[in-house]
Design brief:
alpha+beta; 3 helices
Length: about 110
């Protein structure tokens, strides 16, 4: 379902992730653990299509996260640690609201 090959993201003066490889099969649950600055958020932003990698490749449900961004995003849910809006909503309320916008239910 998620396939990451040789994913690298460099910023000026710093490499956030380098040659990252992993695969998550359908129905499998996976989590990122590591200290601040380990590249967890950068990896998720690349998978969600928010930023391009410097090199490497990532697919979600067989769709390239940049060349087929809309199709890949349809198979991926990503909620950042800090939601920019609706701080008065509980997590389930926010997820139901976002799902309703896409025509689904949580």
């Amino acid at each position: 379902m998620i396939n990451v090959q040789n994913l690298t993201k460099r910023y000026p003066g710093q490499t956030a992730i380098q040659d990252l490889d992993f695969e998550v099969s359908q129905g499998e649950i996976m989590g990122f653990l590591g200290p601040n600055g380990a590249g967890k958020t950068t990896t998720m932003r690349i998978l969600a299509g928010f930023m391009p990698p410097t090199s490497g490749r990532a697919t979600v449900a067989g769709f390239d996260v940049f060349e087929q961004s809309l199709q890949a995003r349809a198979h991926l849910g990503y909620m950042p640690e800090n939601v920019p809006l609706y701080t008065d909503m509980r997590v389930t309320e926010y997820l139901n609201y976002r799902a309703a916008l896409k025509g689904g239910v949580v």
